[in-house]
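User:
Care to share a sequence and C-alpha cells?

Assistant:
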Amino acid sequence: MTEHEHGGHRNRLRAKLDTGALCEHEYLELLLFYAIPRRNTNDLAHRLLAEFGSVHKILSATKERLMRVKGVGNSVASFLVTIGKMVEYTIQGHEENHRYPEEFIPNAFKAYIKQEYEGSLCERLDLYLLDKNNKIFMRKCFTSKEFGRVSIAPEEIIKAIVSEDASGVVMVHNHPVGGCQPSKTDDKTTKRVQLQCNLTNVVFCDHFIYSADGIYSYYESGKLVEMSKQAMEQLNA
C-alpha cells in the first residue's frame, strides 16, 4: 500500500469513527496511527488481538509482554502502556468521585461527611454539585496538600460551579486541627460564594465545616440565610 493509499485508508477510518461503526480491531488500528505515523497498522492490530484476545488485555499488558509481538517496539509498547494507565486512572477517578451520596439529604449527608473527612490530616475543600432534582452529579476537590491549610480563591469556586452548569451546590471543608466553628476567612468566602450563587441563580444549599468535635452547618446556624438576604440587598441596592 502506497503512502497515498495509507492516507486515504486512515481518513476513511477516522470518518467511520464519527459514525460509531468501528469494529474492535479498527479502534485499535486507529489508536496505533498515533504511535506509528507512516505504516500500515491493520496487521499489527490483528496480531495484538490474536495474542491478547481483547483491547482491554492489550492495554493492561506490560511493555515487556507487548514487545514479544512482532512489530511492537519500545515506543509502541510505551504508547500502549501509557494509554492503559490513563484508562486505569480514569476508572479509579470515576469510582472515587462516586463514593458520595446520590442525593443531597442534609442529615444523611452529615453522616457521610463524618465518614469521609474523619482522620484527614490535610485541609480539604470540596464542592458537591447538584442538578435540578437535587441529585449530586459531581464532586470537585480542592486541597493544598499541606497540613492544616487550604487556600482557594472564591473565584475558583464560582468558576467550578458555573462551568458545570450546576443548579445547586454544597460546600464542605474540614479543620484538621481546632474546632468546627468558622473562621473570618470561612465567613468571607461563604458570603462571596453566596453572592455569586444569587447572581447566577444557583441554590447554595449549605457550607459544612467538619472537625473532630463536630460538624458546623451555615444553614442550620442561620448564617447562610442571613448572607443570602445581605446578598439580595446588595444586588437590589
